[in-house]
Design a protein that fits this description.
Blueprint lengths: L9 E9 L5 H15 L2 E7 L2 E9 H12 L10 E5 L5 H6 L5 E5 L22 E3 L1 H9 L16 E5 L3 H4 L2 E3 L5 E3 L9 H7 L8 E5 L13 H12 L8 E4 L2 H8 L6 E6 L6 E3 L36 H4 L9 H5 L5 E7 L2 E7 L12 E2 L4 E2 L9 E6 L6 H7 L1 H6 L4 E6 L3 E3 L1 E3 L2 E3 L8 E3 L12 E3 L15 E3 L16 H15 L4 E5 L1 H11 L12 E5 L18 E6 L10 H9 L6 E6 L11 H10 L3
Parallel strand pairs: 2-5, 6-11, 7-9, 7-10, 10-11, 18-19, 18-26, 21-25, 26-27, 27-28, 28-29
Antiparallel strand pairs: 1-3, 1-4, 2-3, 8-12, 12-13, 14-15, 14-16, 17-19, 20-24, 22-23
Length: 626
């Protein structure tokens, strides 16, 4: 068949390159022009220290892209991974993997190695020694023999480290006799540094080989070669005893190309594009269904853990089971599962046994208490997951409505989750003003409270010390006086109850990347962040966003004492926030360690601004954690 009659095959191209980029904007223009002109879709990430690319399109056009890239001296020595593939058939998978559009972004660094953006990543120049697929295979084959040929008396133990996430290793990994293979069992790459710290004695003095699925990586999940580079550099940065670190150049993809029967690799290689996984000629299945345990290794259904949203394996048969609870092995390990919660429907409560599930629920429909609402469907690509704490005398549903504009503008980077506070407040109503006579001042006249049927319950994180719990749903209270904008200063009770309640929320509905608090919710979030990282802490998150916040008078709350990345949003002195003064929010920001906090002052009063430039500053803060 003539070339012009041959149907053009589809392909996937992966590559990365660590090298100083003298003009990032110019390189951005190149990728924008080249990829669009060739009709290539996928993701391109540019940073001052290199590029990371995962794109798909017709093979002939991908080859033209490679030729154009090679003409730039910056890419000398780049390993381009080009593989033929079927067209993306599953729209959901293609969208999650970024193959329905072209996304080119400039980032501060290609890989965020630590969950704390203020911690410096290891130097790539100190990464481990590269081994080709053949060299890697030879080392595994002669396990127990020294890697250094010139020193045959060296009998250091060989340790093989799989630097991938748990769901990747569940469908395929290296299995070699006489070689200790370490599987960290991590949910995400940012968990790896702490695992290495906790297990550093297993590396000291030994030879370490780091295996990873692809070189170069699929951009979205920072997989493959980049993870090997960072992990090996981090281990070597620990100094004496950690020098002998090597990594598989070309990753499992190059290894399987060299050894089509799989060699020492068993199962399938998970990839972060529409192919989902790539196997060898060995048809054996390593994975198993989470529910029934039968052999299964197909992630195309994109089933996820109800708690942490990690990908899990659920066979076709088990997917048909109604009301099945998906709890990944990591969440099972930490005791997450069922608990009894009241289901609220038409103001009538009944007890059911169910997990706290993240659901999209209209504010006037069935809700869960504690109410947790997600603005997106249950199957998500990885975004920042932020727990939102409402203000005093508010509720999750109302706060969700008030932040609708914010959620819409952050929908590409964050999922906002809302929860009611634990202290239910009585309904408050103002008495009527009546005229006695023309000479007398108006007097207050009591009246019957409004009917409770159409009133939504209100909650608080902190209450007055003499607060007593509501015993009746129709409990109404007449206001003692007009609104006091300093009432928050008297609300000092109930903190321990709220803290224990949030620990339960994190246990049942986590994990969360950050906490956003408004007014009293911001005060609560700040107090929680002060306990972040303490021994025995049940809540693990990476940042807080504090809007119109104020500081609680708690022990150990000295200036600069809170070490947690934070964004403070509040009204300036002319901002017309009549409830929380500018100085009160400034005092709260001062409690955070210098260099950890970012401050946004606005002129919009007691609210979260979503217009420019404020929304851009909020996005800039969040992008540090993506």
């Amino acid at each position: 068949m003539a070339d012009n009659d041959r149907p053009d095959l589809y392909g996937v191209l992966l590559y990365y390159k660590y090298t100083p980029i003298p003009d990032v904007d110019q390189l951005f223009s190149f990728y924008d022009s080249n990829c669009n002109s060739l009709g290539l879709l996928g993701r391109v990430r540019l940073a001052p220290d290199g590029v990371n690319v995962t794109i798909g399109g017709k093979l002939s056009l991908l080859e033209k892209h490679i030729a154009a890239v090679k003409s730039n001296g910056l890419f000398e020595g780049t390993d381009f991974k080009l593989a033929s593939s079927h067209y993306p058939l599953n729209d959901q998978v293609a969208k999650e993997c970024g193959f329905t559009s072209l996304s080119i972004r400039v980032v501060k660094e290609l890989v965020t190695f630590s969950p704390n953006p203020w911690l410096k990543s290891p130097e790539i120049a100190k990464a481990g020694t590269h081994l080709s697929a053949v060299e890697f295979h030879s080392v595994l084959q002669s396990a127990g023999l020294p890697l250094e040929k010139e020193n045959p008396s060296n009998s250091k133990k060989l340790v093989l480290l799989d630097a991938r996430n748990l769901y990747e290793t569940r469908i395929g990994k290296f299995q070699t006799p006489n070689v200790e293979t370490l599987d960290p069992g991590i949910r995400q790459y940012s968990d790896l540094p702490s695992w290495i710290d906790d297990n550093s004695d297993r590396f000291r003095g030994n030879r370490v080989l780091i295996g990873n699925p692809l070189l170069p990586p699929a951009i979205l999940y920072c997989t493959g070669g980049i993870r090997c580079e960072m992990a090996s550099a981090y281990i070597r940065s620990k100094g004496t005893g950690f020098e002998n670190v090597y990594q598989l150049f070309g990753g499992i993809q190059r290894y399987l190309e060299q050894f089509p029967d799989g060699g020492f690799f068993k199962g399938k290689n998970f990839v972060f594009d529409h192919r989902i996984s790539v196997g060898s000629s060995d048809a054996n299945i390593m994975g198993a269904c989470l529910l029934c345990g039968l052999s299964f290794d197909d992630y195309s259904s994109r089933c996820r853990c109800n708690h942490c949203r990690m990908l899990i394996l659920v066979c076709d048969s088990c997917q048909q089971k109604k009301d099945a609870l998906y709890v990944c092995e990591l969440c099972q390990k930490h005791g997450k599962g069922y608990r009894s919660i009241p289901l609220v429907e038409n103001d009538e409560s009944q007890e059911i046994t169910t997990p706290i599930e993240i659901k999209t629920v209209p504010s006037d429909d069935i809700t869960l208490s504690p109410q947790i609402h997600s603005r997106h469907g249950s199957k998500l690509s990885r975004k920042l997951r932020i727990l939102c704490l409402h203000g005093f005398r508010q509720n999750a549903s109302g706060f969700k409505g008030r932040t609708a504009s914010l959620a819409k503008k952050l929908k590409s980077v964050a999922e906002l989750v809302f929860v009611d506070a634990p202290h239910e407040l009585p309904f408050i109503y103002q008495p009527c003003l009546t005229e006695r006579n023309s000479k007398d001042m108006p007097s207050l006249s009591p009246q019957s409270p409004p009917p409770p049927d159409n009133c939504r319950k209100k909650f608080a994180w902190l209450v007055s010390p003499d607060f007593s719990r509501i015993t009746s749903e129709s409990n109404w209270k007449m206001a003692d006086c007009q609104f006091d904008h300093l009432q928050y200063q008297q609300q000092t009770g109930g903190f321990d109850v709220s803290l224990a309640y949030l620990k339960t929320v994190f246990s049942e509905a986590g994990q969360f990347d950050g906490i956003l608090g408004f007014s009293q919710g911001a005060a609560m979030a700040a107090a929680v962040s002060a306990r972040r990282g303490r021994p025995g802490g049940e809540m693990d998150f990476r940042f807080v966003i504090l809007c119109s916040g104020f500081a609680l008078n708690l022990p150990d709350s000295a200036r600069g004492s809170i070490n947690c990345p934070s964004l403070h949003i509040f009204g300036n002195k002319q901002g017309n926030d009549r409830q929380i003064a500018n100085q009160a929010s400034r005092d709260l920001a001062a409690l955070f360690e210098e260099g950890c906090s970012v401050i946004i002052e606005h002129d919009s009063g007691h609210m979260i601004p979503t217009r420019s430039p404020y929304i851009n500053e909020i996005k800039d803060f969040l992008h540090r954690f993506l």
